[in-house]
Amino acid sequence: MSIETVPKPIEGASTFVDDRIGAGNFLRRNLRKIFPDHWSFLLGEIALYSFIILLLTGTFLTFFFKPGMGHVEYAGSYGPLQGVTMSEAYASALSISFDVRGGLLMRQMHHWAALLFIGGMMVHALRVFFTGAYRKPRELNWLIGVLLLTLALAEGLTGYSLPDDLLSGAGLRITEGVAISLPLVGTWITFFLFGGEYPGEDVIARFYSLHILLIPGILLALISAHMILMWVQKHTQMPGKGRTNENVVGAPFYPAFMIKAGAYFMFTFGVIALLGTFAQINPIWLFGPYTPADISAGSQPDFYMGFLEGSLRLMPAWELNLFGGAGGTLAMSVLIPALVPMGIVMTGLALYPFIEQWVTGDRREHHIAERPRNNPHRTSIGMSAVTFYGILWLLGANDEISAFFHISLNWTTYAGRFLIIAGPVVAYIITYRVCLGLQRGDAAIISHGVESGVIKRLPHGEYIEVHVPPHEAIEAHMRGKEAIPIVSGGGAGPKNRDDIPSKGMRGPLGRLRAKMSAAYGGEKIPLDDGHGHAEEHGAIGAGHGSHEEHAAVGQGGDDKSLTR
């Protein structure tokens, strides 16, 4: 079927719409829109489908949950807690779990979908970062994605606190401690959330409003904007044969992409349903109702808040008394862990596209994704951030690590404080060397070909293994590499034709920019032209991996190419 041919379902639907609102051409054109295709694009779809499941299961739960902190005596089906005084929120959460048909399944699916939603967004953000898919013209969509991830963390925190059990109450106590430690506005924010002195009587109702109304509404609006921009700009496509910045190689939205998306939604739904059925999560009946006087040992938050827990546990007990205490006390042991790690990660993500553009001076449009190895500094920075996050996340369970491995808790904490500084540095160095090694491997394949498994004896008696050219699709993928631009002037990189730095590069900031650009950009390991070892290649006939034999491999029959 050619790209100009309109399938009958599209023709019928577009005619129906056109006869009524005159938008048939718009519908027909967009249903045949071509999208690049790659498995990594599905990572973002996991987050999208998890959000849909969150909305569906959350709607079910709102019919039965009571967001109140009034005291009631439990008289439900769960025997061990009968007669125990608890909040209305906790009692209704128990009722959903034990007395509402399908309630426990919905609760657990909702919780698993929340974890998958945030996890999917994190992995999707890493994919976009490491491939440089945030570059012009997609900076705005990148900022929307960073804001979505930040709001998702807030949505998870408010939802996690709603059952008012002992575990979530401990997290809520930490939230209150962080809020009240903020200078100037801390007390006001705390009273606004809790309705008075902790724990107050209003926090569950106010978190409930935030959780089901305000934050989801903003998320829904941002996701819609994110999808619209993605629809207009399309995904970046991976380098390969026939792929350029001026065209799009892929399959049409209907039927190929629509069928894949529908099937993948069902896969995501099935996995979450199976997890909700067979993998118990957040058994609130085992924790008991929350009281400020109680705390459970070994309590851990959900994974997405683990890095903040770790930062709190690693931070020394620092305080800053202003004007000898007369100006107040800043609890640095709370402020720094609560604000600095989140600020480093989220602010760094938001600003990185613009910092990279400033360093490289690259203001071109990019529709071809980069292989992570081909931008070693960016990949190394990303792995340093992942290491920073991972160490904080791991040390959020320093008490469990200490107990399980029989290590002193103090030494576990000291090791964490050392690793949080040294770990990202080591990760940067190792990642950079690995990227250069992978680039050398690509250059060797382009220059010498790939091993054929055929041993050849040369006239002078030497035995060699014959190499053949790589498959044309693999070679095109490797040759999609581009040198990272370098700004001119300032004593580093090329200058203008008069060999004089431009006006903006003459000051200290300009010289710093030029040095950073020279270090960050350029071609680290060039790809050699040709394949070399011509005498080895000539000995291989069509039966040993010639280009003609594999020319059609990887070219799906449904793939189309459109000019961008």
From TrEMBL:
Chain ranges of the Cytochrome b/b6 N-terminal region profile domain: 13-239
Top-level taxonomic group: Bacteria
Disordered: region residues: 485-508, 522-564
Transmembrane helix found in the keyword field: yes
PROSITE patterns: CYTB_NTER
Catalytic activity: a quinol + 2 Fe(III)-[cytochrome c](out) = a quinone + 2 Fe(II)-[cytochrome c](out) + 2 H(+)(out)
Native organism: Streptosporangium oxazolinicum
A Pfam family: Cytochrom_B_N_2
TM region positions: 46-65, 111-130, 142-162, 174-195, 207-232, 253-279, 330-355, 415-435
Keyword Transmembrane helix: yes
Full protein name: Cytochrome bc1 complex cytochrome b subunit
InterPro entries in alphabetical order: Cyt_b/b6_N, Cytb/b6-like_sf, Di-haem_cyt_TM
Names of the cofactor(s): heme
Keywords: Membrane, Transmembrane, Transmembrane helix
Source species taxonomy: Bacteria, Bacillati, Actinomycetota, Actinomycetes, Streptosporangiales
EC number per UniProt: 7.1.1.8
